Amino acid sequence: MKINFFTTLEEILYEKNTQIKIDKFKNFYENFKLNLCEFNHDHQAIIRKNSQVNILHPTRIRRPKQANSPAALAKILHSVAHIEYSAINLALDASYRFKNLPFKFYQDWLEVADEEIKHFLLLENVLNELGFKYGDFDAHDNLEQALFLTKDNLAHRMGIVHRGLEAKGLDANPFVLKKLNSTNHPIKTLFNEIFKIILDDEIKHVSKGDIWWNYAKEKNEKYINLCKNFKEFNLLGKKYNKEARIKAGFQQEELDEMENFYNGG
Questions:
Q1: For residue 146, what are the CA distances in angstroms to 128, 140, 195?
Q2: What does the pLDDT look like over 128-162, one tens digit per residue?
Q3: 224-241 tens-digit pLDDT
Q4: Per DSSP, what are the bridge partners of residue 55?
Q5: Is the dihedral of CA 115, 110, 171, 131 positive or negative?
Q6: CA 64 to CA 186: how far, in whole Å?
Q7: Could you tell me if 149 and 230 are in contact, meaning their C-beta atoms sit under 8 angstroms apart?
């Protein structure tokens, strides 16, 4: 029996219980890979707030400078877990919201959602080992804001979220790992492996964002114009991960233009 692709995704996307959400997705994804989904592209997408944690403005989030206690370590890990959880929703939302696209588009973003779930669970397991769980700390909703702002434009969604904000994760990865490794807690032995998995997968995710941004954008549109038109999002880390960004599809000329723009040039 076929299942409705968009209706089922809507149910998963807005499920509030994290474990139920993941279980429902796993079942749905198996059905999708078995070609048991039917696509009703006339389906009308809805949008609503979708956070599982207490949300504060980014300036009100206190970020530990060092991982010098289990609580500080957990808070740093929680912030990364929140990004990964938000990324699950962003990948699901891309698959759910944008209609009449090649089948490969839906394959790509469901694969991303599956890998973001893997990342989230790896981080959640470490949080649990430390005596904490997802939702124990406050978080910001920058990624959800980006979802709302780009909900009506595929090129903007791919460019801002999946090619832009996800690439900032490539920039941040080595710095967060260095901070985590400053702890003396024995659990640190897990960090290098987990963050290597995340980095390798996120390069693939940004690459998918690159492919679909190029698919959706105007023929001669340059990426720097997107940066200028969405100034509420800084799309380049203060010290960016050049190697990872090039692997993910960025051109050196683009990176030079972005660096010049964000540095006030």
A1: 29, 12, 24
A2: 999 999 999 988 778 888 999 999 999 999 999 99
A3: 999 999 999 999 998 999
A4: 139
A5: negative
A6: 19
A7: yes
Q: Which amino acid belongs to residue 9?
A: L
Residue 40 per-residue DSSP state: -
Beta bridge partners of 38: 4
How many angstroms separate the CA atoms of 126 and 200, rounded?
A: 20
Tokens representing 52 are 């599982």
The answer to whether the beta carbons of residues 111 and 94 sit under 8 Å apart is no
Q: Which two tokens stand for residue 158?
A: 């791919």
Beta bridge partners of 3: 37
> The tokens of 256 are what?
């030079």
Chain centre to alpha carbon of residue 244: 16
Strand ranges (DSSP E) for the chain? 3-4, 37-38
Sign of the alpha-carbon dihedral angle for 255, 212, 204, 58? positive
Token representation of residue 21: 């959400």
Using CA atoms, how far apart are residues 161 and 155, in angstroms rounded to an integer? 10
pLDDT > 70: percent of the chain: 97
Question: Residue 151 gets which letter from DSSP?
Answer: T
pLDDT at residue number 265: 62
Q: What is the DSSP letter of 161?
A: I
